[in-house]
Amino acid sequence: MKYYIGLLSGTSIDGIDAAVVAIGKNKIKLIACHSKDFSAELAKQLHELINNQTSTLANFANADYQLAYEFSKAVIELLGKANLTAKDITAIGSHGQTVYHQPYEDKYDAISKQAL
Known about the structure:
Blueprint: E1 2-8, E2 15-23, E3 28-37, H1 40-51, H2 57-82, E4 89-94, E5 97-102, E6 107-111
Parallel strand pairs: 1-4
Antiparallel strand pairs: 1-2, 2-3, 5-6
Helix pairs in contact: 1-2
């Protein structure tokens, strides 16, 4: 079986939910899950990006990197719960954090430096 991690942060901006699953030929098994609250600073940054119609590129970039950092911490904590290492993981899937969504205009943007 191969191990995969999924990460999710919702529009409530309360934190990150993470899960690791094992997937085999005919079986999917939940190995561990973990929830991590956003830091107060990151929650503030995200709310400002979402609620303000204008923002600076610096604010956008700072929130982007901070979110990626908190995602990485959530993964490390999840791996500890699952007694796995990063080398055990085949792939990580993450949508990022939606910071702009105009469904009627088909416009959307999300942040999280996935490479981190």
